[in-house]
Write a structure and sequence with these properties.
By secondary structure, this protein is an all-alpha fold. Helix content is about 60%, strand content about 0%. Helix 2 crosses helix 4. The longest helix is centred in the middle third of the chain and has 38 residues. The mean pLDDT is about 85.
Length: about 110
């Protein structure tokens, strides 16, 4: 369900995966036995995943905005010098943003989000 495109393919008469592969007969059977609660859960997971992807996409700009006030205070602008000006909470936020910029986007996995 999480990999479904939910657009019925005219050439096969079935739904397809996001990569274009048509659903197998078994996959179609699963879709037709899915409950409303299960569909709502899939939707919630996909919403969380899209928010995660958007956060990752926004991370470089967020990191630059976060660092701007520290850069303004420094003659020699290095990350090490900027960190010396930060509080414990600011260092934690810096590390979170840096990890968001550095780590690749994880592929969607059901129940991971």
């Amino acid at each position: 369900m999480c990999d479904a495109d939910f657009k019925k393919r005219m050439d096969t008469g079935t739904w397809s995966h996001r990569d274009g592969r048509p659903f197998s007969r078994e996959e179609q059977d699963v879709v037709f036995t899915t409950t409303l609660v299960e569909l709502e859960e899939v939707e919630e997971q996909l919403i969380r995943y899209r928010a995660y992807v958007q956060t990752k996409a926004d991370a470089p700009d967020a990191l630059n905005s976060f660092l701007a006030p520290f850069w303004d205070q420094l003659r020699e602008k290095t990350l090490g010098n900027a960190v010396t000006l930060m509080t414990k909470d600011e260092v934690a936020e810096f590390n979170r943003l840096l990890a968001a910029v550095d780590e690749p986007i994880r592929p969607f996995t059901p129940y991971a989000f």
